[in-house]
Every structure is written in structure tokens, then in C-alpha cells.
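Q: How would the C-alpha cells look for this protein?
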Amino acid sequence: MLQQMRGLAKYIWVLVAFVFVGGFLLYETSGLMGRTPVTTTTPVAVVNGHDILYSQFQARVQNEVQSEQQRSGQTLSQDDTRRIENSVFDQMVSDVLLQDEYRRRGIVVTDDEVREFARYAPPSWITGAPELQTEGRFDPDKYARLLASPQARQGGLLVSLENYYRTEIPREKLFDQIGSGVYVSDSELWRAWRDQHDSAQVSYVSFVPTPDPAAAKAISDADLHAYFDQHKSEFQGPGRAVLSVVTIPRTVTAADSAAARAKVVALREEIVKGAKFEDVAKRESADTVSGRNGGDLGKGGKGRFVPDFEKAAYALGKGELSQPVLTPFGYHLIKVDEKKGDTLSLRHILVRIQASDSSTTRIDKEADVLSRSAGSSDQGKKLDTAAQKLGLKISRAQAFEGQPATMDGKPIPSASAWAFGGAKPGETSELFDDENGYYLVRLDSLHEGGEPKFENVKEEIRGRVAASRQLDKLLPDAQKLASAAATSTLEAAAQQAGKKVEQTPMFSRSSIVPGLGQFNEAVGAAFALPTGAVSAPVKTNDGVYVLRVDKRVLADSAAWVAQKPAQKATRLQQLRQQKIQMFLQDMRKAAKVDDRRKKINAATRRADV
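A: Here is the predicted structure in C-alpha cell form.
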């Protein structure tokens, strides 16, 4: 029992250590000693009159960052950290709003409830503890003995459980209240079943618009404004930033590739001579996550790995060691532990192809010059001057708030988080880097998310209005063809109009239909028309269609009755979850949230300059 308790206690003490270290680092570096505008009483947000302290927010962020770094085995980029910050912030805001809701509804938690839940509803971090397993399954008797032991109190387990349940029990009570009263009728279930199992096949003639730039340019601002006013909510989205980026790539040569291959050959020879694969992987593999586990990549079927790796792995027999295998990640050694059909259990060692020391030194010096010349500056022209002096190209990139910035399909690390973290147009960032190179970024323009401005979406509106007008111009020709088809056939009318008749495969209401699209008016018409009837012109966002239903197969009602209980249970659960999600969304929309993160970040950055 003592061994079991120690096994659980180590996790608790690690958590306590993280909190302490995170808090100490926060105190030393975040301005709590008066070096920046941030103090111990600075709120990062005010939610319905309740302060969320910046110090508490940062402590939780630090804990999550450290946990994520431990799981990934890598240092996180600013984009990763910003994702964690946003998640922690949203959770802390929700916690405040939920506490208000508990008080409003009179939801409380008694000591007896905590004890009952602790005995009979242990959390996943308890049920998954190796010390509480018997033959691979959670053992309730071991857990009961642990709860009754003195070590449970002394090691902090009981306190951890109490804190957990005093958060989870009121949440569960609230969600039970919100989700109660959900009802689903047989007619709704039958309609849903039909949506999935009714099928149709149609023949159609399409009228697709041809872009007319001159006509689009001639659309008046008054018409564009009118469209904008009617569809404003459709243009709401995340913030958008335009960036200038200078990149110093880490280039590798043929000699670098040869050196990596020579190293992996030497590691293979070491294993062949008797070294344990697992020990070499722990010591040498550049894949630090699997490397910590002796190179273990787990068990699974095909489709898990890039083609070159997978081809080499499936060519091996059980216990066999591969020759060096080249993939976009570098050179690998692969060993198959177990092989049953398409299921493999295997390990690997990764040796990355990296620039030589001399090349790395040159690149580092160049990056240092770039950083000293233009980094962390509010004088944007310094970036142009430094790039010209070093012979480096300035590229343009776009970033959306909450998403990594990309350039030529490749991510630019930390750039988006920096741009939306309080930077002002004209500022340049600190030097960012990843395994592909160094990056210095200038913020050229910034459009905040949320309520859109007409000027920012004017050209998108112009495209929509122009496309709609082009479709309207096609309607007379489509109507003429539909009228002709009504007195002859669709094929004859199409031939007379110089158009082609296409035919779809069988499809349901939710299918992506080749030529027609998905969830649009044309797909709906296929299930509304009688078989053999020709439709009037049907306008969608992409074209105008005249169609005929060739075949329709109705859903099997007997099959529906047989599965109805399971369908009903699933649907009720879905409706409960939807009702809860709608409640939480409405609660957040109605809340008064003063988010001060960007102001604090900007003030802190100015104080550090």
C-alpha cells in the first residue's frame, strides 16, 4: 500500500513543484516587483464585475506550458503558448460565469456528496494509475484500501480529490438541470433516418457563370453597402495581419546528408554487435518523444507513417533491423517487435540531416546581425535596410488570429502570436527560429476581428454580388430549356440549346454530389420532385440547374424500427449536449468580459524596451 501511495504521491508533488516554480518565475519576470505596469492586483480580465488576476492566469498558463513541453519533449513556440493562453483564459472566464450560475440556482456541494463521488466515481487519473490496476483493469478494492490509508491524507490525495469534486459536482448538477426535459418524437427519428437512407439519381443540365471583371467593377458602392448591411454577420471572423518576413534558412548540403547517413550506419553496426536497440534510441534518437521509450512507435495498421518509412517497415520480418531509411524527417533505423498481418509493433531511431557546424556558425552570425540591426524595433524601415545589407529577400505573409502565420504553405513560428499580442503596425519582432531557419517579422497592417469594416471586405462583397448577378442572367436561358423539356425530353431540349446532360450516381440528402454540390437547393429538389419530372430552374451559389429525377429508393421502415431504440438514445444524448452547448454559448455572449491581455502585453513590452 505504501508503494501504491508513493506512486500516486509523486505526481501530486511534481504538480506542487511546477506551481511553485511557475509562481516564482512569474514573480521574478512578469513585473510583479514593479519593473512593469503589472502588479499582484492587476486583473487580466473583469468578468461581470469579477476580477481575474493576471498572476493567477499566468500561474495556470505556466503549468499548462510545462505539462505540454513534458508531453512533447520540445520547447513550445509563441503560437503554441498563445493557444494555451487562450484555452486557459476561456476556462477561467467560464469558471467565473459558472460560479455565478451556481449561486443563482442555489447549487451547492455537500461533504457527503464529495465522499460518495470519491468512493464510487473516481476520476480518470485515478482509474488509469498503474498502482491501482489488477490484470490490466482498475481494481476498486485497491482504490478503497488506498482511500482508507493514512497515506491518502498525508500525501495530499484526499485534498486533490476534494478539489476535483467540488468543481465537477456542481457542473454536473447544472448540466443535468439544463439537459432535462429533452424529447424526440418518432417522426423526427424517421425523418433523420430518411435523410440518411433515402437516395436518388438525377440527370441535369447546368448553367455556370463566366466571370466578368468589367461588370464587377461597375457595381456601385451603394449596392455593395446594401449587400453588406444585409449580410454583415457573414463577414465576422478572426483578426487579420499582413506581415513582412525576412528568412535565413538553415540549408543542408550533400555532405550534411552523407554525414547523417554515416552516423545512422554506425548506430546500426553498434546494435548488430550487441547493443540494445532501446538503449541506443534513448541516447541518440532525434525523435525525443519515442526516444524516451526506447524508440517505441506503438502498435497499429497501415497509414500511420510517410510512404518511404511504411514501405521499409512492412518489408521487415519480426525482430529484423532495417538498413538506413531516408524520409523527409531524416534517416531512420527501424526494428519490428511484432507482426500480425497488417498490424505492426515497431521502434525507430531518427537521425536528422542538419547543417554542418561551419554552416550553422555562419547562419547564426547572420541571424545575430539581422536581430541587432532590426529586431524588436518600432522603426519598421530598419528591416528593409538590414535585409538589403545582408542580401536577404523580404516576403509577404498573412496571419489570422488564433492560427499560425504561413508563407508558401509553411508555418512561420510565433509570428501570429506576436502580431496579435499587442504589436503595432510598423513594429518588428524579436528573432524567431525553428528547425528550418530564423525569421524576423514586421507588422505592416492589422485588422481586428469581430465586427467587420466595410472597407476591409469590400472586394469580397463585390465578388459575391457580381456572381449573384451573373447567375440571374442565366435564369432566362435555363427557363427556356426547362419549358422545352416539359413538352419533349431533357435530352432533346439540351441538344437544341447546345447543352450537355449529365447524370449523378445515387446519393442521399447529405451526400457531396458530383456536379451538384452538397446541402444546396439542387440536392433538395432531387428529393422534392416526382420521379421523371423536370424541374424549373434551380439557382444555387455555384450555378443554375434544370434537373430530372431518374430514380429514387426510399428508406426501409422495418430496418428503422429495428434500430430505433439505439437511434433514440443517441439522439437524446446529442440534444442534451446541444442544449448544454447553447446554454454555455449564450451565457458567454451575455457576459460582460473586459479582456485586458493585449493592453497588458503592449504595456509590458513598452516597459521592457
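Confidence is low (pLDDT under 50) at residues 1-35.

The two ends are 56 Å apart (CA to CA).

Upvote if useful.
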